[in-house]
From TrEMBL:
<feature type="compositionally biased region" description="Low complexity">
    <location>
        <begin position="1"/>
        <end position="27"/>
    </location>
</feature>
<protein>
    <submittedName>
        <fullName>Uncharacterized protein</fullName>
    </submittedName>
</protein>
<feature type="compositionally biased region" description="Polar residues">
    <location>
        <begin position="28"/>
        <end position="41"/>
    </location>
</feature>
<feature type="region of interest" description="Disordered">
    <location>
        <begin position="1"/>
        <end position="41"/>
    </location>
</feature>
Length: 218
């Protein structure tokens, strides 16, 4: 009878040790869950930081878009100056006027493209889930603006060429032709500046695309 009691006591002791081991396992699991929760919290903070970075990039694109708009308005003014100078030339006035009007229209197109970049930039600022797609759209729009700036440069060069022809048309028209030549060179320079600004917009769009792809992977 004593041996049975002893055996039962040992069994109870073994059960108690098993319960203790189970409690320790539960404690370890709880600590693991706590650690996992902290990891999730850190991950959430990282996502928040990435979102803020994308917002800042979007605001940068908006600012660049506004700069392109202002540059487009400068091209419009230069085009109007070319038109006025063309009217002062008797023999080739009509030709220069037409070229000047073409430059004016091109400048207005650059202004419109700049406003579109501004709108896209504001859309990127408010983006959440589809940042990558918005970044690609910004890149495409900025490439279009770059091409538009190159077209303005080409138009300015055409004005310069036309003005050189005016310079050679007669002795009486020499001074007027030289004035038109200077205006045409100014338009060419403005077009090159627009091209440079638009390349910056393109680079900004590519950065937005890269940031979006990084968020997508995350």
């Amino acid at each position: 009878m004593g041996e049975r009691v002893t055996s039962v006591g040992e069994s109870v002791t073994s059960v108690g040790e098993s319960v203790t081991s189970v409690r320790e396992s539960v404690t370890n699991v709880g600590e693991s869950v706590t650690s996992a929760g902290e990891s999730v919290t850190n991950m959430g903070e990282s996502v928040t930081n990435v979102g803020e970075s994308v917002t800042n990039v979007g605001e940068s694109v908006t600012n660049v878009g506004e700069s392109v708009t202002n540059m487009g308005e400068s091209v419009t003014s230069a085009g109007e100056s070319v038109t006025s100078a063309g009217e002062d030339v008797t023999s080739a006035g009509e030709c220069v006027t037409r070229v000047g009007e073409s430059v004016t229209n091109m400048g207005e197109s650059v202004t419109t493209a700049g406003e579109r970049v501004t709108s896209v930039g504001e859309s990127v600022t408010n983006m959440g889930e589809s940042v990558s797609t918005a970044g690609e759209r910004v890149t495409n729009v900025c490439e279009s603006v770059t091409n538009m700036g190159e077209s303005v440069t080409s138009a300015g060069e055409s004005v310069t060429s036309a003005c050189e022809s005016v310079t050679n048309m007669g002795e009486n028209d020499t001074s007027a032709g030289e004035c038109v030549t200077k205006v045409g060179e100014s338009v060419t320079s403005v077009g090159e500046i627009v091209t440079s600004r638009c390349e910056r917009v393109t680079n900004a769009g590519e950065h937005v695309t890269s940031a979006g792809e990084s968020m997508t992977r995350g």
